[in-house]
Amino acid sequence: MRRAIRATGRGATCCARCCGGSRRAPRASRLESERDELYEAQASKLLAGITVGLDLGRAPLIGAALQVYWVHLVTTLGAQAFGRIDAPTVCPCCGSRPVASVVRMGAQEAGLRYLHCSLCGTEWHFARIQCASCEATKGIEYHFIKDGTKAWQAETCAECGTYLKIFHQEHEPLVEPTADDLASVALDLLVADTGKLRSGQNLMLIHGDEE
Ligand SMILES: [Zn+2]
Ligand SMILES: [Zn+2]
């Protein structure tokens, strides 16, 4: 994992505005020179959802490296990585929460919903019109951006007061849950007006206080 974090830091470049992306990003440069213990501590906080003591500026780089490491683990293990667990709302491979869900298109899977793991990218089947946090089937509502794409929706739950986004391949075949979650922040702002809290975990989009 430490090698993946260093590789992610080496690949990061500065913004196009100041140098055309030719210089190394300052945070990435500092990250590469840090001790292994810092990687481990920051990665542990990020995976546990602890923002106190977490460097929010470096968190996306560490999150990207963790995703590379875990995708490698899961794809290397193949079918052995999968197992039936008692909690259907967390990933059957790594135990992480989903970033969002996808309603698929295609002959055999058309209309079926899958939760997408925020860490290893695994997708697992989950019923529709059911809260992906508390599993309630009542009090479910859907929100979308007026005049926006039909591919993005937010499923809110009155029982636990959370929401998770649903992306519809029927309207956007190339939808990518982590990237589309970032692209649809306007939907988060819309749902925030209802008082519902986000249940989806995105390692590229960390909220909270470092203090
Ligand atoms: Zn996973
Ligand atoms: Zn719920």
Taking all Cα atoms into account, the compactness measure Rg is 18 Å
The helix fraction, in percent, is 25-40%
Order of helices and strands: HHHHHEEEEEEHHE
Distance between the termini: 26 Å
Low-confidence stretches: none
Description:
By secondary structure, the chain is an alpha/beta fold. It has helices at 2-11, 16-19, 26-32, 36-48, 59-77, 177-183, 185-192, and strands at residues 98-103, 113-117, 123-125, 140-143, 152-157, 162-168, 197-198. It folds into two domains: 2-79, no CATH class; 98-198, no CATH class. Strands 1, 2, 3, 4, 5, 6 and 7 form a seven-stranded mixed sheet that branches. Helix 4 (36-48) crosses helix 5. Bound molecules: zinc ion (2 copies). One zinc ion is lined by residues 91, 93-94, 96, 117, 119-120, 122. The site of one zinc ion (ZN) has 8 residues, from loops.
